[in-house]
Specification:
The chain has about 150 residues and is mostly helical. It is built from eight helices and five strands. The protein is globular. The N and C termini lie far apart (about 90 Å). The model has no long low-confidence stretch (mean pLDDT about 85).
Length: about 150
């Protein structure tokens, strides 16, 4: 009988133990945030892809795994490139804004109307629907009659 009691007690103890909540998503979100600098875009640490804007602007280093997980268009360009060097058809500031979204899911708070419109166009071109929605919501909050006149010019 004692053996049965111990087995039952052992089972009860095992059943009362619960797995702690997963921190995987928050760990990765924090790691991505550490790999992004507001001033420069993605940091060079562990970067294995170079994105060259169409202008003569300075190239931007990025992480293939981030591109693969967050932007199929850039991931395909990176995988098809030689030595991880990709020429992208946008200006550097636009690229930095898209990368900011890919790494942090945030928009530059000081982004102006025209910058947001260009970011939205890239989001649509590169099939980044969440970025498109976020930019559209920001544009809607900023919209006023003078902006409408500016857009129609």
């Amino acid at each position: 009988m004692e053996g049965d009691s111990t087995d039952t007690l052992g089972q009860a103890d095992a059943l009362s133990l619960q797995h702690p909540p997963s921190t995987l998503a928050s760990d990765f979100r924090n790691a991505l945030a550490r790999l992004y600098s507001d001033a420069e875009g993605p940091t060079a640490a562990y970067a294995d892809v170079t994105l060259q804007p169409r202008s003569d602007g300075e190239a931007v280093r990025a992480h293939a795994v981030v591109l693969m997980a967050r932007c199929e268009t850039l991931a395909k360009l990176a995988s098809a490139s030689l030595a991880g060097h990709v020429i992208v058809d946008c200006e550097r500031c636009e690229l930095i804004d898209v990368l900011r979204w890919l790494y942090t899911e945030s928009l530059r708070p000081e982004a102006q109307l025209q910058e947001l419109l260009r970011t939205r166009a890239l989001a649509q071109e590169w099939s980044l629907s969440a970025l498109d929605i976020a930019v559209s919501a920001t544009l809607a909050r900023q919209l006023n009659p003078s902006h409408c006149c500016e857009l129609l010019r």
